[in-house]
């Protein structure tokens, strides 16, 4: 079955950097777009970025454009999110997300999330 396992979160100072990883299994990773989504305390889900099959194209929320970089290693079945110049308001749980439509049904898979805390 599909499994998504995020890692790399932690405590970082404002202006700092972190790289998140999401290890995927249970499906043909290279054939699917992969997303990063975050949820700040007390707020709803916010889409962050997506990478298409192969190694791009990539798309970003306006709030992170120019500071975050999504990438993937199809040999390792892993998607990454490099985050630079982090802001305190970006404290959130970051999730890796796979979804697709097949036969009229939506299939939606999430990892357990990794906590990112931006604080001095």
How far apart are the termini? 40 Å
Mean pLDDT across the residues is 96
Biggest β-sheet description: 7 strands, mixed
Summing up helix and strand content along with how strands pair, one would put the structural category as: mainly beta
Write the H/E string, N to C: EEEEEEEEEEE
User: How many individual β-strands?
Assistant: 11
Low-confidence stretches: none
Net shape: globular
Question: Features of this protein?
Answer:
120 residues, mainly beta, four-stranded antiparallel sheet
Can you walk me through this structure?
By secondary structure, the chain is mostly beta strands. The protein has strands spanning 3-7, 10-12, 18-25, 34-39, 45-51, 58-60, 68-73, 78-83, 92-102, 105-110, 114-118. Strands 2, 4, 5, 6, 9, 10 and 11 form a seven-stranded mixed sheet that branches. Strands 1-3-8-7 form a four-stranded antiparallel sheet, with no helix packed on it. The radius of gyration is 14 Å and the shape is globular. The mean pLDDT is 96.
Task: Break the fold down into its secondary structure elements and pairings.
Layout: E1 3-7, E2 10-12, E3 18-25, E4 34-39, E5 45-51, E6 58-60, E7 68-73, E8 78-83, E9 92-102, E10 105-110, E11 114-118
Parallel strand pairs: 2-11
Antiparallel strand pairs: 1-3, 3-8, 4-5, 4-9, 5-6, 7-8, 9-10, 9-11
Write a brief structural summary.
The chain contains no helices and eleven strands. It is an all-beta fold.
């Amino acid at each position: 079955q599909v499994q998504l396992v995020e890692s790399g979160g932690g405590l970082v100072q404002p202006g700092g950097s972190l790289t998140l990883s999401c290890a995927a299994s249970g499906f043909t990773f290279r054939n699917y777009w992969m997303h990063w989504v975050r949820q700040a305390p007390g707020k709803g889900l916010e889409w962050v970025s997506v990478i298409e099959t192969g190694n791009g194209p990539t798309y970003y929320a306006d709030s992170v454009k120019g500071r975050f970089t999504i990438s993937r290693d199809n040999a390792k079945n892993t998607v990454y999110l490099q985050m630079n110049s982090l802001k305190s308001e970006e404290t959130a749980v970051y999730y890796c997300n796979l979804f697709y439509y097949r036969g009229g049904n939506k299939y939606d898979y999430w990892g357990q999330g990794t906590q990112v805390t931006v604080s001095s």
